[in-house]
Amino acid sequence: MLAHILIAAIYAAASFLVAASAVRFGDADATGATALGMIIFLICALVQIWFVRGRATSQLTETIERLKADVQRAREETQNVRSKLEFVEASIDRQVTKRNEALVAEVRVIEDMLERITRNQTGPVAAIAAAPATGAPYREADNLMAVVRHALERNQVDLHLQPIVTLPQRRTAFYEGFTRIRDAAGRTLMPTEFLKAAEAAGLLTTIDNLLLFRCVQIVRKLAKTDKRIGVFCNVSPASLGDEGFFPQFLDFMRENKDLSGSLIFEITQESFDTRDGVQARNMGKLQDLGFRFSIDRATKLKVDLPAMQKAGVHFFKASGTLINQELGENSTRPASGITRDIEPRDVAALFARYGIDLIADRIEDERTVIEILDLDIGFGQGHLFGQPKPLKDSILEDFNAAPIQRAI
Length: 408
Description:
eight-stranded mixed beta barrel; 15 helices; 408 residues; single chain; alpha/beta; disordered C terminus; 59% helix
C-alpha cells in the first residue's frame, strides 16, 4: 500500500511539473495547464493499474498451476497408498488363511490321536474329571487313560524347564523341556504314573506323539517371548517310526521351520544306536528343515562322531559321573578320524570338531563340577544349577532376572 501511495505521489509531482512548464514556457493558460496535468496523471495511473493487474494475473496463474501440480501429486500418492493397502490386505489374508489351515491341521492331528485313546479306553471322562484328588497314584488303566484324555482335551499339558548352563560362568544357555499333564484337580501326574498303563493299553505311541506335539506347540509360543531360547524336547523312536503320525507331524514342523533355532529334538543313545531305516529317514527329514538333534541318557562315550554329525546331532549329554569314569579310569575315546592318542581334556574339543557340544548332566554337587571343569566340558545340567520348573515360573524368574546367552 505504501509503495502505491509513493508511486501516485510521483505521478502527481510529474503532472504538476508538466502543467507548470506549460504555463511558464508554453504561454498556456492556467486552466489548460491544469487539464493537461490531470490527463497525464490519469494516463500514468491507468498504466500503473494495467501493470499491477497483469502482475497479479501472472501470479494467480502460477499459483493455479502449482495447485494443479500439488493435486496431481496428491492423487498419485493416494493411489500408491491404496495400492500398498491392497497389497498389505492381501498379504494379511494369505497369512490368516495359512494360519487357519495350520490350526485346522493341528486340530485334526490332535483329534485323530484323541480318538485312538477313546477307542481304547472305556472309563468315563466326566467321572474322572469330577473325582477329587487323593494324592494316591491312579491304578486302573481305564481311569488313567480317561485322565490323560481329559488333560489333553483341556490343554492341561505343561512344559517344565530345567536350565542348561555354560561352564564355568553358569549362565543359562538352553533349557530341557519335560512334558507333564495335570488331572482335573490340578495334580501333576509323573510319566511313571501313566506310561505303564498306556503301554498295557497299546497307547504308548499315541501318548508319546501327543506329548511331543504339545511340547512343540508350547515352544512355539515360548519363542515369541524370546527367540534366543533353545529348548531340548524329547522325541521317542515310536514317534519317529509311526507312519500314521510322522507325516502329519512333519507337515506341522514344515509350517514351523522358523523354530529350527529354538527347538532341539532329543533322543536317547540306545534309541539312536538301534534306530531302523524308517526312523533314520525321518530324522533326516527333520534335519533337512534345519532342526538339530541331541543324544540323551548316554551310557558310553565310545561313539562314532562322523556318523552322529551326518545324522544332524549337535549335542551329546552324558552324566558327570559317566564322563569322569570313562575319561579317567577306562580312558574311553570316541571313534573319529584322528588316530593319535587323545588326552582326556581334549575329548570335548574332539566332539566340537564334529560340531557336537558335550553336556555333562545330572550334576548334583560341586565336586562333580570341579572334575568336569578339569576336562574342559563347556555345558552342565542338573539340580545343582536348577530343578525343572513350570514354564510360567521360568519365564517370570529366569528370563526377567538374567538374559539368556546363546553359546553355539
